[in-house]
Every structure is written in C-alpha cells, then in structure tokens.
Amino acid sequence: MENVSVNTTQTSLWLQCRRLLTATGPGLLMAAAAIGASHLVASTRAGAEFGWQLAWVILLVNLLKYPFFAAGARYTAATGESLLHGYQRQGRGYLLLFSLLNALAAVASTAGVAMLTAALLTQFIPLPIDLLALIVLVASLLLLVLGHYRVLDRVTKVIMLCLTVTTLSAAALAFNAEPILAPGFVSPSPWQWAHVGFLVAMMGWMPAPIEVSCWNSLWLLEKQKQQRVTPKQALFDFNLGFITTAILAVVFLSLGAMVMHGSGVHFSPSGAKFAEQLIQLYSQVLGEGSRYLIALVALLCIFSTTVTVVDGYSRTLILSVQLLRKDEVSERGLNLTMLAVSLLGLGIILFFKGALLPLLQFVMTLAFMTTIIFAWLNYRLMTSDNLAPGDRYGVAMRLLSWIGMTYLLGFAALFVYWKFVG
C-alpha cells in the first residue's frame, strides 16, 4: 500500500509539473524579447569595460522593475482581458498616452534589434548591413504572417534553450581560463560623471522595455485560446522567463568581465565589427572550431528577439487604435501595422548608416526615459478597483513599486541634467 501511495504522489507531482510546463510560452517569449540587445550588448559591454562592478546593479534593476512587468501576467490571469483594456477602463486618456509612447518605442526598438540581427548575419553573408536588415525584417514579417503565435511559441523555446546552454557553457569554461589582466591594471570606475549615459542606456533595456508587459498580456490571451491557463500557471510562466533573463544578464556580464576586461580591446561602434568581436568573445573560451555554431546560436537568438519585437509592438499598436476607435481587431490590420513598423524601423537604420552602438544607445536611453510612465500606468492598474481585492498588489509589491518608480524618476532626472546641463 505504501508503494501505491508513493507512486500516486510521484504521478501527481509529475502531472502538476507537466501542466505548468505546457502552459509556458508567453513568459518565455518575453524572455526572448529581453535577451537581445540588453544582454548581448549592454551586459557584455558592462563586463568588458568595468569587470564585475555592475553585476549588482543589473540584479537590482531587474528586482525594482519586477512589479511593473508582473502586471501583464497577473492582470490578464485575473480578469481575462489585456492590460490595454485595463488602461481604457482607467480612462481614454491613459490608453492614448500609452499608445503615443508605444508608437515611438515600436519604431526605435525595431530598428535597434533588426540592425543587431543584421550585424550578426554579416558573419555568414558578406552584404551591406542595411540590405541585411531589410532581409531580416522581411523574414520576420513572413514568419509572423504565415505562422503567428503558434510558430513563434514553439521556435522560441528551442532557441532559448540553445542560447542558455551555450552561454552557461562559455561562462563555466571562462572561469577556468587564465586571467588576462595585465600587471598593475586598475579597473575604471563606472561611477564617474562621464559614464551616466552608458548607465542609463544599460538600465533602459534591462531586462527589457516595460511596455513588454503588454505583449506578455496579449500573448497570454493567445495561449488561452489554445488551452486553459490558470493564474498559478501564468505567474509561474512569467517568473520563469523573468528569472531566466536576470540570471543570463549576469552571465553575459561575466563573459565580458572574464574574457575582455583588462585586455585593452573595446567594442567597436560598427555593426559588423561588433558582431565579429562578440563571436570572438565566445570562441576564445569554447574554441575556434565552435565559432560558426556560436554565431548561428547568437543570430537565432537576436532574430527571435526581432520577431517578438515586431509582433509584440504591432499587436499593442493595432489593439490600442481599435480600442480608441471602438473597432474590432482584424488580421489585416495587424499585418499592415507590422509592415508599417518595419518600414519606419528600416528608415532609422538607414539614418544611422551601420553605426550599431550609437543606435542601440539611443534606443535604450529612449526606453529608460519613457519607462517611468509605463511603470506608473501598470502600478495604477494593479492597485485599482478594476481588480478584486485579492488580485491587487499587496503591501510588499506596493512598496517595491514605489521604490522602483523613485529610482526610475531619479535616474531620469540625473540623465537630463547630465545631458543638457552638466
């Protein structure tokens, strides 16, 4: 009888784990959107330039932004509607404010991730980066138009697993490598006035722009069309994706710190050169023979980010417009929105003429300056009467939210002073 009881318990635990895993998708899609420029570029560059000094900042930023990202999964799981519907319930002006800022972020972010994808693609195809960016955007549109959420959900899980295994392996090998610091080398401090711009840019997309919480909300609704997702499953999926992004951000920083810091090598602003340096970072510890495999994994990772960015921003944009106009969401409208976002993003890429790091710094800084408004909108919604008392944020989440908004507002004010006065 005891064996029967043990087997029953094991079966029950297995079924619970299986249900949680089959419900995953929106949270991992959010992670795929996050593990792009903020990790491959900002985290790695932070480690390369300042060693381990900014590791605690990355973890703190993730913690302080957590309540605003969690709003997407928690609100939708509790109400069965998206964050955008929640903004509209607060008042038409709140949805309009979100829509205007979201449109600006959509074009800039699409340009940033598409150029980074094109930069990595130069490792395989010797074409101008602008032309490769066009190819990337066309491929993204085709994937989304033909497959939409179902394909995106399946492909992302495989790519995320490959990237995670590769990056963790590289970091583990780098720990055993000989130190490259020259005798007498002193790490520069990131807490200097000249580095305020870099700090703000790094935190702007760490782990991702806060409006990504709306994508998570819409992706959860799409997932619920395929199967039932309970609030517990939705929160597990979100937490799994969010914690993964935070851990990998520190892992990417460790690669920069252990392989490039103190070597005298700095990342080039040129997109193609930057991609070459990034792949070299991995191949130094995994071996030159792994160069193209690493390049392929990194390319697939950032390509999945591009696809999720185009899909996520377009979904929120078309739904915002149709809620404001009281129309129904149409497949044709979504496709046209994705096309418009891609074309405008391509225009920004052409303007920056292959200068990847300046473009990404511009996009990340823009994200940070608008973050406080997106954070406030989500906090207001998660403490409003639209939610049942048991679904609203409690004392701990309210306190963390206020600390987070104070930090965001304080750094935004510091950046404005640094940029225009100091």
TrEMBL record:
<protein>
    <submittedName>
        <fullName>Putative manganese transporter</fullName>
    </submittedName>
</protein>
<feature type="transmembrane region" description="Helical">
    <location>
        <begin position="292"/>
        <end position="313"/>
    </location>
</feature>
<feature type="transmembrane region" description="Helical">
    <location>
        <begin position="158"/>
        <end position="177"/>
    </location>
</feature>
<dbReference type="InterPro" id="IPR001046">
    <property type="entry name" value="NRAMP_fam"/>
</dbReference>
<keyword id="KW-0813">Transport</keyword>
<dbReference type="GO" id="GO:0034755">
    <property type="term" value="P:iron ion transmembrane transport"/>
</dbReference>
<feature type="transmembrane region" description="Helical">
    <location>
        <begin position="127"/>
        <end position="146"/>
    </location>
</feature>
<dbReference type="GO" id="GO:0015086">
    <property type="term" value="F:cadmium ion transmembrane transporter activity"/>
</dbReference>
<feature type="transmembrane region" description="Helical">
    <location>
        <begin position="54"/>
        <end position="73"/>
    </location>
</feature>
<dbReference type="Pfam" id="PF01566">
    <property type="entry name" value="Nramp"/>
</dbReference>
<dbReference type="GO" id="GO:0015293">
    <property type="term" value="F:symporter activity"/>
</dbReference>
<keyword id="KW-0812">Transmembrane</keyword>
<dbReference type="GO" id="GO:0005384">
    <property type="term" value="F:manganese ion transmembrane transporter activity"/>
</dbReference>
<feature type="transmembrane region" description="Helical">
    <location>
        <begin position="358"/>
        <end position="379"/>
    </location>
</feature>
<dbReference type="GO" id="GO:0005886">
    <property type="term" value="C:plasma membrane"/>
</dbReference>
<feature type="transmembrane region" description="Helical">
    <location>
        <begin position="20"/>
        <end position="42"/>
    </location>
</feature>
<keyword id="KW-0472">Membrane</keyword>
<feature type="transmembrane region" description="Helical">
    <location>
        <begin position="334"/>
        <end position="352"/>
    </location>
</feature>
<feature type="transmembrane region" description="Helical">
    <location>
        <begin position="197"/>
        <end position="219"/>
    </location>
</feature>
<feature type="transmembrane region" description="Helical">
    <location>
        <begin position="240"/>
        <end position="260"/>
    </location>
</feature>
<keyword id="KW-0769">Symport</keyword>
<feature type="transmembrane region" description="Helical">
    <location>
        <begin position="399"/>
        <end position="418"/>
    </location>
</feature>
<feature type="transmembrane region" description="Helical">
    <location>
        <begin position="94"/>
        <end position="121"/>
    </location>
</feature>
<keyword id="KW-1133">Transmembrane helix</keyword>
